[in-house]
Design the sequence.
């Protein structure tokens, strides 16, 4: 022990303690032995209020129905507001519809400057609700 420097002795002691901790730890279970975590129950979103839907309907009729009457698309016929079509294009969420209405895309104008964020949210809520109901 005479040949070990104090720092070398310290390192040796740390290594020995660490090795004993690892050796005393239980073995890690194989993946087949690990029990899966219980699945969390999906929390269904609460249905939109009738006030929000009525506001959305009125705003939709005033701003959107000229091109999207009854969930159709008079400009690009295959891009309707039917739920399956919205899902195909990744537009089947309030957030996606809100983004589209706010910023527009291609020939669809942006409404972010002419409508408030609450109004756009009401439109998005109405559109998604109607799509889920089959218009």
Sequence:
């Amino acid at each position: 022990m005479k040949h070990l420097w104090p720092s070398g002795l310290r390192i040796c002691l740390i290594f020995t303690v660490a090795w004993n901790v690892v050796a005393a730890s239980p073995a890690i279970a194989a993946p087949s032995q690990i029990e899966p975590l219980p699945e969390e129950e999906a929390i269904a979103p609460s249905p939109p209020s009738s006030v929000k839907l009525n506001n959305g309907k009125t705003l939709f009729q005033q701003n959107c129905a000229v091109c999207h009457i009854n969930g159709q698309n008079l400009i690009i016929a295959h891009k309707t507001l039917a739920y399956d079509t919205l899902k195909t294009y990744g537009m089947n969420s309030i957030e996606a519809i809100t983004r589209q209405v706010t910023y527009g895309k291609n020939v669809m104008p942006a409404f972010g400057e002419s409508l408030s964020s609450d109004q756009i949210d009401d439109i998005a809520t109405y559109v998604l609700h109607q799509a889920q109901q089959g218009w």
